[in-house]
Amino acid sequence: MPHPLELYRNKPFYWPDAAKGFKYLCRALLAAPYGPRMRITLRALTDEDIEAHNAGEDEHTVRWLNGAPGTAETTAAHFDSLADNARAERGKRGFGVCLDDRLAGYVDCDPDVTDGLEPGDVNISYAVHPWARGHGVAGEAVRLILEYMRDNRIGIRAVVRVDPDNVASVRVAEKSGFIYVHDFTSGTDKHPDGTPAMLRLYVHDMEAPSRPT
Ligand SMILES: CC(C)(COP(=O)(O)OP(=O)(O)OC[C@H]1O[C@@H](n2cnc3c(N)ncnc32)[C@H](O)[C@@H]1OP(=O)(O)O)[C@@H](O)C(=O)NCCC(=O)NCCS
């Protein structure tokens, strides 16, 4: 029987393990201001959220999500249409994502998106305000919107359409249990130079758990 110290000494050093440990240590340090357990919730957006919502947009939000920064008028109109849809129980349902009660992002599900999709597919979009990124907020927001879709029987499959260069969003889809299907040329989304965007399609069966087990 080898001495325990001998076993330890003979254990090969494995860089991926060390990198993973370092990653979790960094994340714990970054999350420290939000307490050991962050509380992420979804709630309806009102006119009082317009300023914080618009302030939470940056060049990444514009590039990967909305194409142009929101103004007080466009955001108010957007929130009004979300309220109408919620009342009518149809179309795009969107929510503010709160981190410990502070507005930290946005998530929606939209059964009316058809670009690259099949009947029964419901598109999910999300954005997190720059100050709140890197703490798992988007992953948790996606889990909550999937729960909402299940509870309200919205769609057969949830889908995420994402530019492969948007690595953070690709990772959010993958860690939320979405499965890569294929790349396709979008009929609606364009690159800044006007050429059609090539998007990755990720799908999530609504019966499947929202996180890989
Ligand atoms: C995409 C976005 C919502 C992610 O928000 P977030 O709260 O930071 O996301 P999470 O913390 O839940 O997860 C991000 C993951 O991407 C990873 N990631 C972030 N930047 C990365 C990079 N440059 N390279 C590799 N991985 C990266 C993180 O490590 C994390 O993965 P992990 O949990 O395995 O460590 C946010 O960056 C954003 O708002 N972007 C602009 C809008 C947008 O792109 N929306 C999606 C359109 S499809």
Produce the secondary structure layout.
Blueprint (H helix, E strand, L loop, with lengths): L3 H7 L4 H17 L8 E4 L6 H6 L3 H8 L5 H17 L4 E7 L2 E9 L10 E8 L8 H15 L5 E6 L4 H9 L3 E12 L5 E10 L8
Parallel strand pairs: 4-5
Antiparallel strand pairs: 1-2, 2-3, 3-4, 5-7, 6-7
The structure holds coenzyme A.
Coenzyme A binds next to α4, β4, α6 and α7.
What does this entry look like structurally?
It is a single chain. It contains 7 helices and 7 strands. The chain has 213 residues and is of the alpha+beta class. It has one domain: Gcn5-related N-acetyltransferase (GNAT) (Aminopeptidase, 3-Layer(aba) Sandwich), CATH 3.40.630.30. A 7-stranded mixed sheet has the order 1-2-3-4-5-7-6, sandwiched between helices. Helix 6 links the parallel strand 4 and strand 5. The two termini are 37 Å apart. The relative contact order is 0.12. The N terminus is likely disordered. The site of coenzyme A has 23 residues, from helix 4, strand 4, helix 6 and helix 7. Pfam families: Acetyltransf_3 (PF13302). InterPro entries: Acyl_CoA_acyltransferase, GNAT_dom, N-acetyltransferase.
